[in-house]
């Protein structure tokens, strides 16, 4: 079905890969595991983040099929509010798909590549609780006979990061909605996930 194809191509970019807007110190790393439902599709993944510079870190997340990578730049950091930009990319094998009228279509490549960009904010409500609102865009490539051309979706959501400093871990549940820009309803869907993060986090 077209909606299932749209969901598989778009919502599988899990925005929780970026975690909070604060970046890890250079050379430090964390591990993470996540599970949820992305536009009706159950998903699980494991991953890691690595601090590269004082304001830049990168992440990798691997699921049963998709591989996600991202880079996050933290350009505003204060006691109560943080702001970052995140660029993420998803790579995954593609398969035959069917449209609503039953036509079978081969995708134009043996894999699909989905880039996205997010603006991530952090509202720090103490040392253990951070609200993480985010918004951005996702680009989707065509599947021959199913969808035509390249189209863009907007995405917005809210996460909550709850830290447990004594255990060197945190939990981050979040939810989001994605939909076509300019009145295009392709890919419209709701997503929710929870991530567990181990290691000494951003400071």
Core attributes:
203 residues; mainly beta; Porin; ten-stranded antiparallel barrel; two-stranded antiparallel sheet; globular; disordered N terminus
Q: Looking at CATH, which topology would you report?
A: Porin
Helix proportion = under 10%
User: Poorly predicted ranges (pLDDT <50, ≥5 residues)?
Assistant: 1-11, 96-100
The averaged pLDDT comes out at 81
The total tally of domains equals 1
Strand arrangement within the widest β-sheet reads 1-2-3-4-5-8-9-10-11-12
Largest sheet report: 10 strands, antiparallel, barrel
Instruction: Bin the strand percentage.
Output: over 45%
The overall strand count is 12
Head-to-tail CA distance between termini:
45 Å
Order of helices and strands: HEEEEEEEEEEEE
Q: Count the helices. How many? A: 1
Q: Which structural class do you get from the secondary structure elements?
A: mainly beta
What is the class in the CATH system?
Mainly Beta
Please tell me how large the radius of gyration is.
17 Å
Do you know the CATH architecture? Beta Barrel
- Which word captures the global form? globular
What features would you describe in this structure?
This protein has 203 residues and is mainly β. It is built from one helix and twelve strands. It has one helix at residues 2-10, and strands spanning 29-38, 41-53, 56-62, 67-77, 81-93, 97-98, 104-105, 111-124, 129-140, 151-164, 169-180, 189-198. Helix content is 4%, strand content 59%. A hairpin with a 3-residue loop joins β4 (67-77) and β5. The protein has one domain (2-198): Porin. It has a ten-stranded antiparallel β-barrel with strand order 1-2-3-4-5-8-9-10-11-12. A two-stranded antiparallel sheet has the order 6-7. The relative contact order is 0.22.
